[in-house]
Amino acid sequence: MIDNFDRRDFLKVLGWGGAAVALSGCGNTSVEDGREIVTSYSEPAEYVIPSIGVYFNSTCAQCDAGCSIMGRVREGRVLKLEGNPDSSINRGKTCGLGQAGVQAHYNPDRIREPLLRSGDKGEAITWDKALELINSKLAGVKGEEVAFLTGGTSGHINVLLKNYLAALGSSNHYAYDAVSPSVVRAANKKAYGVEMPRLRLDKAKVVLSFGADFLGAWVSPVHFSQQYAQFRKGTRPEGRGVLVQVESKMTLTGANADRWLAIRPGTEGILALGLIHALGAAGMKIPGGIAQDYSLERVSKDTGISAEQITKLAALLKERTPSLVIAGSAAEGYAHGTQNAAAIALLNQVLGNVGKTVQFPAVVPFPQVLPTVGNRYALQALNDEMAQGKVKVLFNYGANPVYSAPAAMKLKENLGKVPFKVAFAHYMDETALQADLVLPLDSALEDWATSVPEYMAEEAQINIQQPLMEKLYPGTRGMGDILLALLKQRRADEYKGYEDFYSYLHSAVLQNKVALGGTGKDDDAFWTATLSKGLLKLPCDAGKISDKITPTAIALPAPFAADDAYPLQLIPAVSASLRDGRHANLPWLQESPDPLTTIVWDSWVEIHPKTAARLGIVEGDIVEVTAKNGSIKAQAYLFPGIHPDAVSVPLGNGHEAMGRYAKGVGVNVFNILDAVFDKGTGELAMHETRVKVSKTGKRVVIVKDEGSAGGQQMGRKIAARVTSDKVDLSGEV
Amino acid sequence: MSVTNLLENWSQFRHKHPVGDQPHEEYKWAMSIDLDACTGCNACSVACYAENNLPVVGKEKYSHGFAHHWIRVERYWDADGRDFPDQGAQFLPMMCQQCEAAPCETVCPVGATNHTADGLNSQVYNRCIGSRYCEANCPYKVRYFNWYDYPTTDNVWPEPMNQQLNPDVTVRGKGVMEKCTFCVQRLTAAKSNARTEGRTVRDGEVQTACQQACPTNAISFGNLVDPEAMVGKQWMQQQVQLDKDKQAKDAEEAASKLRGYRILEELRAYPSVMYLERVRESAI
Amino acid sequence: MTKDIREDIAWAKINKDVLKSLEAPRKLYWVIIFIALAMIGVAVGCEIYQYQTGMGVSYKNNSHVWGLYIATFIFWIGMSHSGTLLSAILHLMHADWRKPIYRFAEAMTTFSLMTAGLFVLVHLGRVWMFYYALPYPSERWIWPNFQSPLLWDAMAIFTYLSSSVIFLYVGMIPDLAICRDNIHAGWRKKLYTLLALGWEGTDRQWRSFRITYLTVACFLIPLAVSVHSIVASDFAMSQQPGWHITSFPPYFVAGALYSGCAAIITLFIILRYVFKFEEYMTLPILKKTARLTFAISMVWTYLNLIEFASVWYGHDQASKDVLIYKATGHYAPFWWGMMFCGSIVPLTLAFKRFQTNIPVLFVVSILLNVGMWLERWMIVAPTFANGYYPWTWDHDQWPSFVQWGIVFGSFGWFALLFMVFCKVFPSVSMYEVKEMVYHRSQASKKNGLATKGAH
Questions:
Q1: pLDDT tens for each residue of A126-144
Q2: With a cut of 0.90, is the ipTM above it?
């Protein structure tokens, strides 16, 4: 890393020509029109050595975890992303999704110029025209008739976005995230006083996770993976930690558990209360008669987990403290999700973990830039508004609800009722296809932004996202620049001082120099150092987490009764690489085998071998999964890590648009989800869909990495395992 | 160019075998992978695609077994017939084991795969004629053949995707064998930097792409000759010796207390990758 | 026992009969040539497709890196042992009955080697760089890898091919002279004149000829044994389960002689029919060949069983797994087919009445060859499907039409070479048949005298 270099010079060398763009305000220069500054290699800046890669820091935008990255740039092209060791979030590490960030940037299916769409056709127009069109469409529309749909947003984009909506007189910012842990957030808020407490896996002796795939796709996987590595170290004072995962469908985290317990879908809360009961039976002091009705027999019967196992688990939790109990997506995905999450939080409190392994998180002291986290409720709210014709102009940035909303919501139909829809998009995804105006965005490796991750570890930080190379296409623009241009239409005076988003960020950072830890430093030096580091670490005062036991009335329903018409529970699985489907067009991720099934380039139906045998299904059978709201057809994969009463289909594939790598691959399971909502938060309950599975008679050979031995080692010592009592970890390096 | 000449050179080559008669001088690159830390997340594999210009072959070709993942994450289940895999799955990142007595090297008719002085098993693309004998003789099946011409006829990197290609790594054409190189381009750069400064490469100075990405630090990599290197300490602590086909510790009672092992060690290929057994809690 | 050949055939008739095979061909000949060309066409088409698109179109993969090409390569190498067996070994053993049929057997040797060589090229991923495998001096002092059995293979095959061409040619010189003397002027006469090297049949020439022929024959025998031992080393020297077997070289040599003999029976019958050589390729000779084939088939069966036993009683579980997989897995039909064709079918040859029954022998010989081809495939493929490393086991890979097409076409290529040879050169050795007739008549004269004397 190079600490002392001039960012502007750097961009000039890369040919970004920042100054030229800034001065002209609009229009993009290129080498062809002769206004580009091209610096010859015969006199390069000192940090550019032809054929030597130089690393520049930025922030990964592949998910909302906000890992800091450094991009290797050579001859003006970004080649590879690595983790930035300075960030306490990812400590120099990356996940596969983050690695594939370069493919999002170089994707051949990116939109390259603004498109005005009429019917099925798109007509390329200039940015001036596009922005003017937005201005004219907004004329005569009441502020409350304008809605802005986004994914999770944070940082200065969030600030500008709010300001723009305020300028329009609208308060309709809908932050939608199809797979976010919003029910758990609400339950956490109630139990601990914070939505996302800091989880100290590294301090826990036992981690009991109720379907939280924290190593795969939950909240901040790279961070948790780092913590997990600490947790597993035998040389740690606490000794090697024990992971117990309770879920109905094995996640990546479940696959790494010391004990994986297949629980009947939806009974996670019952088990949590049952454990409290068992802890009481084992002599732990349980306040106020909590969980009295949850006798071992009843819990074992309801959850399908043996009494012996529950007793063992309770004994382990009692003996090894502190432990850490985590509620994940599997526990919250039901109509009683809030209750499940509350029961699990209660277990944490009873075990005395709050304050020890559940801590107050690091918080950035600037409320304006704090993240607006997405949830599913936002989309329902917007959908209702649209259905009633209350939305006249809809902006969409970073969300693809046409793909990810259940068909039962009739979202596409309701979108049709919005007279003017603007999509800010990288690719022509399903939602962009419905828009009247499509505005192409710079890739995350070309754009300026700041971001504040929702989940931060020991330190609060503001991440800087900055261009790692010249824009690939002159016709794209950064979201910040677009918002600024839109704001100038409304509040020209207020924003005329900012040539572009870069200068806005520049002044925003420097105005707060003192608060940002730059006391006494030269402006330019501070700015340069900030960009060089790629993040701003902030002092933050440690708040105190509420460690009172809050035995709210928890009402858990009885487990599902057998339903002959739809006998199986559908578990839509969030995969670490495809998430909610926004990355389905990255070929590396499509070709990266699913860790558990090793299937590539397709969707599949995970089904327990016992259930399969009962239904006469063998691997590769194309089965039809029928729910009340539709059906999908996909290949069956016999998977031992799933409850026999459930089937699981991964989310993320089944796109009807989004370019050559995504379109037509697999099936979209979002489509058939039932519109059942969590009673506490109104969130769509993702796991509440009941289905039946039938054979279609067709059969395919599943395309997967696993060979004909089916994941067996055939008596050879290949992936070896040892029990903890047979090994001495203390002397390890 | 006489026969005598040939034989002399040949015998010199034969004596260069690094196990036993000629120990490594400056470098012996080796790895250790902690299976207890590995979560099977596949980040290493994607990082390898990014670093080493691996082609994405697509579904149809994947189905025929043409995948090019120099490092692949294998997933094993217990074979005990229980209803649920209640101790999870077993993940194993598998890449070229850079064997000291590599079965692939002896069989190549043209000497396209060789042992370097650093203890790497190198593959010379230009020399390879594609007899595939090396892969046939590889016990781990970690060599990948270019069954098609991915850069051109298959258009694996359509404009502008090709701009991502790492200029330090050859883009392979059809008909040659390839495999994990331990990111030799990074090693070479680090070595020449060190040589310029008149020293050897320090531990941690160079990382392989998989190691650098790995979110749980399950992979250590370094120079086994360097006494300061983490990887060497791990090998030492686990009592795994490079040039043995049976580890002395395995004969002892205390063996069970250590968890280092090498895969298919008994084949006497002397692999340079040590794995640490996955641990599972006995109390639960 | 009936005679191998009638002792009263006039020498002139021998010349006439054999030289007749060099005259304008019958319609049947053209049909065969046309079929052969069509088959080659298929193979060439497949090869062009494979060359342009990549080896992947043959549906080998990273588990199955070798496929039918290598299996068929061994098959053709094996086939080549017939000529050496009949000419060299039986020559040294003074087995007179070989004389009418050794010429075409030698031609078979040469042509099957030429076919086998093509498979090496077809198999290569970068065939345009094949010369890297040749030990030619280069300014960069880069040599091929002399440790590689594949290189030994290339060298052994090349040596064997050149030696067998020399052997075939040397043995043909007196006959070429006959052709030269009996043919009308034209390109052929020029060719024969050139090739006959001025043969006049003087005593001195005969003496030199005998010595040369014997020397080459002696030279050829160890070569033949070594060439297939080296092909066996391609497998035995590797480390893979199912290949790493000490008994492979003799097993391969036996298999080679076996398939060679079987092929001789097939071609014997075809030539006898196509060129009307009933007079020379007589049933008694066929019977002897059949008996020889039977003997070798039992040797092969024995070695096969030895191989199983050594695997079974060895401690290598992976090898055992491969063996069990062969017998019970996806390749089981082919493996049992090989056992049936290789060890059961030849039992027919134990019965006297089948030893001279041409239709039965024809079918049996074809089945034996199918069995031997399956044997080679069953050596190559199951080890890839079920090797050391379970993760890469691949039981589903099936060769594509490209592989099958090229294998199919190779038979056409062989047939074409063989048919052209038979039209251009005498496929029955005239001088040796004359010798044989002479020996016979001498013997019968003796016998006749003795008989007379008794009365």
A1: 999 999 999 999 988 998 9
A2: yes
Mark yes or no for CB contact B110/C125 under 8 Å.
no
Chains with 3 or more CB pairs under 8 A to chain B: A, C
A361 and A194 Cβ atoms separated by less than 8 Å: yes
Question: Please, which pLDDT band fits residue C454 given cuts at 50, 70 and 90?
Answer: very low
Strand partners of residue B76? B90
Q: Locate C157 and state its tokens.
A: 């095959």
**Out of A707, A716, A718, closest to residue C394 by CB:** A707
Q: Is the pLDDT of residue A125 over 60?
A: yes
Whether A262 and B86 have beta carbons less than 8 Å apart is answered as yes
The class level of CATH for A7-109+450-473+498-538 reads mainly beta
Query: Which candidate in C321, C391, C393, C397 is best for mutational testing of the A interface (most A CBs within 10 A)?
Result: C391
User: Are C260 and C241 contacting, i.e. CB atoms less than 8 angstroms apart?
Assistant: no
Which residues are within 8 A (CB) of A93 and not within 5 positions of it... i.e. 6 or more apart?
A: A67, A83, A222, A225, A226, B43, B212, B213, B214, B215, B217
Q: How far is A570 from chain B (nearest CA, A)?
A: 18
Which alpha helices (DSSP H) does C21-85 contain, by range? 27-53, 68-79, 81-83
Q: What are phi and psi of C285, to 5 degrees?
A: -65, -40
As given in the structure block, the two tokens for residue A201 are 């896996």
Task: Read off the tokens for C417.
Answer: 């070479």
* Per-residue pLDDT at A388: 93
- Calculate how close chain B gets to C91, using CA atoms only, in Å: 36
Count the domains in chain B. Answer: 1
What single-letter amino acid sits at B58?
G
CB contact under 8 A, C62 and B175: no
Please state the domain count of chain C: 1
Among C318, C388, C394, whose Cβ lies nearest the Cβ of A708? C394
Q: What is the CATH number of the domain that holds B143?
A: 3.30.70.20
Verify whether the Cβ–Cβ distance A718 to C391 is below 8 Å: yes
Q: Which chain B residues are Cβ-neighbours of C150 within 8 angstroms?
A: 107-109, 131, 133
3-class secondary-structure state, position B173: coil
Q: Which helix (H) or strand (E) holds A184?
A: helix A182-192
Q: Which residue segment(s) compose the domain that B260 sits in?
A: 3-276
Find out whether the peptide bond into B23 is cis, omega within 30 degrees of 0. Answer: no
Give residues 702 to 721 of A whose Cβ lies within 8 Å of C. Answer: 706-709, 711-716, 718
Q: Would the CB atoms of C238 and B141 count as touching at under 8 Å?
A: no
CATH number, domain containing residue C423: 1.20.1630.10
Query: How would DSSP label each residue in A10-75?
Result: HHHHHT--HHHHHHH-SS---TTTT------TTS--TT--TT--EEEEEE--SSTT--EEEEEEET
Cα–Cα distance, A516 to C263 (Å, whole number): 89
Q: Do A706 and C391 touch (CB under 8 A)?
A: yes
Amino acid letter, residue C242:
G
Quick check: helix, strand or coil at residue A435?
Answer: coil
Note the pLDDT tens digit of each residue in A208-264.
999 999 999 999 999 999 999 999 999 999 999 999 999 999 999 999 999 999 999
Alpha-carbon torsion (A183, A189, A195, A196), positive or negative: negative
Query: How many helices and strands (H and E) does chain B possess?
Result: 9, 11
Give residue C315's domain range. Answer: 25-135+144-395+407-437
- What's chain A's Rg over C-alpha atoms? 26
Could you tell me how far CA C399 lies from the centroid of its own chain?
Answer: 24
CATH number listed for the domain at residues A115-179+366-440: 3.40.50.740
Task: Give the Cα separation of C245 and C240 in Å (integer).
Answer: 9
For residue B172, the chain C residues in CB contact (below 8 A) are none
Q: A-chain residues within 8 Å CB-CB of B258? A: 727-728
Q: What is the CATH number of domain A182-359?
A: 3.40.228.10
Tell me whether residues C147 and B66 touch, CB distance under 8 A: no
Nearest by CB: B216 against A92, A225, A731: A225
If residue C176 lies in a helix (H) or strand (E), which one and from where to where? helix C149-182
